[in-house]
Amino acid sequence: MIKAGVAGAGHLGKIHLKLLQQSDKYELVGFYDLDVENAKRLEAEFGYKYFENLDDLLAEVEMLDIVTPTLSHFDLAKKAIENKKHIFIEKPITNTLEEAQELERLLEENNVKGQVGHVERFNPAFKAVADLVKEPLFIETHRLAEFNPRGTDVPVVLDLMIHDLDVILSVVKSPVKEIRSSGVCVISETPDIANARIVFESGCVANITTSRISMKNMRKTRFFQKDAYISVDFLEKKSEIIRMEDATEDNVDDFSMILENAEKKKKKIYFEYPDVLNNNAILEELESFADSIENNAPIRVTINDGIQALKLALDIIDNFEATKLSSIS
């Protein structure tokens, strides 16, 4: 078992503490948090060992799980890496691209491993179809959330959209060619609603809409490619695949769904519903990292993956600013 410590005992940190304690792959040593009152309450209620000093925690662990606000990610990760500890670090990986690139360099220099917490990669609905998404031509994504003050200190792109950016980058193996984006501040000082249109050099176009002031929650992505339309509902954990083929006497019966185009060509429509194996995505991402540490298994979401998602998110935000300046001038 890998001796693990957690930095950060907020909403998500509490979930990580609980799951690490339950895991067969980790031994939870304890946690560090700046909020002493909250930390002591958690220690009394759940028995997690609280370390008032990060150095003391690092001295007893092999892996540090960083679940703090993004602004503190770099300093915590840097200290852990320089102490030869593996790091699991929540998204966004860091506050700036330069910090993320420095962490990648430090990991290599100190010969330790790092993984980024882009949890939607482990969502069972996406896992059920991920291998079937091949050379998509168009991607449509909606991630809508009801208002929650937590996370509103950063633009919605870094808070929510970055989930979808990572998923898209994991299936579109092509450089970004063009970005068009817009963001609107409604209740926060940073944009609460955002849309981005990303054109890749492969020709794929992704249209991404994100809101954190919606009346309902939605997390859906649709992939359109030559042989299929693939729909993923990350919230309901459901997937659907729709395929078409030429309709012939051999493959059509009374129950077939047929579409006929203007040229009188007929297509038969197939509906497939992949088995979605329910899981705890956060536990799975943490345990996949344990396999990487112990068995040298490939890291599922690498530090470079985190860098690419952050770079794209920051480019989208920069495009907001460019649009504002253009409209002013």
What does this structure look like?
By secondary structure, this protein is an alpha/beta fold. The chain folds into two domains: 2-112, Rossmann fold; 122-278 and 313-322, 2-Layer Sandwich (Dihydrodipicolinate Reductase, domain 2), CATH 3.30.360.10. 34% of the residues lie in helices and 28% in strands. It contains nine helices and 14 strands. Helix 4 packs parallel to helix 5 (97-110) and helix 7 (156-171) crosses helix 9 (303-328). It starts with a strand and ends with a helix.
Note the topology.
Blueprint: E1 2-7, H1 11-22, E2 26-32, H2 36-46, H3 54-58, E3 63-66, H4 73-82, E4 86-90, H5 97-110, E5 114-117, H6 124-127, E6 138-144, H7 156-171, E7 176-184, E8 193-200, E9 205-211, E10 218-225, E11 228-233, E12 238-246, E13 257-260, E14 266-272, H8 281-295, H9 303-328
Parallel strand pairs: 1-2, 1-3, 3-4, 4-5, 6-9
Antiparallel strand pairs: 6-10, 7-8, 8-9, 10-11, 11-12, 12-14, 13-14
Helix pairs in contact: 4-5, 5-9, 7-9
Could you give a short description of this structure?
With 329 residues, the protein is an alpha/beta fold. It has nine helices and 14 strands.
Mean pLDDT: 93
SSE class: alpha/beta
Q: Which CATH architecture of the largest domain would you pick?
A: 2-Layer Sandwich
H/E element sequence: EHEHHEHEHEHEHEEEEEEEEHH
Would you report the number of β strands?
Answer: 14
N-to-C CA distance: 60 Å
Number of domains: 2
Q: How can the largest sheet be summarized?
A: 9 strands, mixed
Q: Could you estimate the helical fraction of the residues in percent? A: 25-40%
**What is Rg?**
22 Å
Low-confidence stretches: 325-329
Protein name: Gfo/Idh/MocA family oxidoreductase
Organism: Profundicola chukchiensis
Domain GFO/IDH/MocA-like oxidoreductase: 156-217
Domain Gfo/Idh/MocA-like oxidoreductase N-terminal: 2-118
